[in-house]
């Protein structure tokens, strides 16, 4: 049958599909959105959503100097690079090698880690802060698994700040 439908998808298959799609689209995404996300700014930018609000304007993460920060769903690592330029020890994590490749060689250099947001390859308590500026959260099959992993890698009392775009936003 040629019917459109919905079926459950195992986590591994979801990760493979997401990685494959983002790897294929990374160049076009960077070309279309890179400037908005801070590619042309020294040190990048941490942009919280399509309205253009930045961490520099909002200060949602609080003080970042000397803090260990994980950017989840980092794409081209614009946010992690901005955090590093502000004195944080930042790590950029994304499921897509193609997206992370976009950050290679850009200053400031930050560690780039390709991994599933629901299976973070870090020890418990590795980070003081974690953030995701409409990165991984809306694209995973099991958001609860991502939240549990982020909670695990944060120190007790660590801060997790994320944004997602409301689905109706694109209607306007």
Keywords:
18% strand, alpha/beta, 32% helix
What does this molecule look like?
The protein is of the alpha/beta class and 172 residues long. 32% of the residues lie in helices and 18% in strands. It contains five helices and five strands, in the order H-H-E-H-E-H-E-E-H-E. It has helices spanning 11-37, 55-58, 78-85, 97-101, 143-153, and strands at residues 68-72, 89-94, 112-114, 127-133, 154-163. It has a five-stranded parallel β-sheet with strand order 3-2-1-4-5. Helix 4 (97-101) links the parallel strand 2 (89-94) and strand 3 (112-114). The chain is globular and about 55 Å long.
Distance between the termini: 35 Å
Strand-residue proportion: 15-25%
Task: Specify the oligomeric state.
Answer: single chain
Radius of gyration: 16 Å
Q: Percent range for helical residues?
A: 25-40%
In spatial order, strands of the major sheet run: 3-2-1-4-5
**Low-confidence parts:** none
Structural class: alpha/beta
Task: Please summarize the sheet with the most strands.
Answer: 5 strands, parallel
Would you tell me the overall average pLDDT? 92
How many beta-strand elements? 5
Helix count from the secondary structure assignment: 5
Name the shape in a single word.
globular
What is the string of SSEs from the N terminus onward? HHEHEHEEHE
């Amino acid at each position: 049958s040629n019917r459109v439908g919905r079926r459950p998808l195992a986590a591994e298959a979801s990760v493979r599909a997401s990685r494959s799609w983002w790897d294929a689209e990374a160049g076009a995404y960077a070309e279309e959105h890179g400037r908005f996300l801070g590619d042309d700014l020294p040190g990048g930018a941490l942009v919280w959503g399509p309205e253009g609000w930045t961490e520099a304007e909002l200060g949602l993460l609080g003080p970042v100097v000397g803090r260990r920060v994980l950017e989840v769903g980092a794409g081209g690592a614009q946010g992690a690079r901005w955090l590093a330029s502000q004195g944080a020890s930042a790590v950029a994590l994304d499921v897509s090698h193609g997206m992370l490749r976009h950050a290679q060689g850009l200053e400031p250099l930050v560690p780039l880690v390709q991994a599933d947001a629901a299976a973070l390859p870090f020890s418990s308590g590795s980070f003081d802060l974690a953030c995701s500026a409409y990165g991984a959260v809306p694209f995973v099959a099991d958001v609860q698994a991502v939240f549990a992993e982020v909670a695990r890698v944060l120190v007790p009392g660590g801060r997790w700040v994320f944004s997602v775009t409301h689905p109706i936003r694109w209607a306007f």
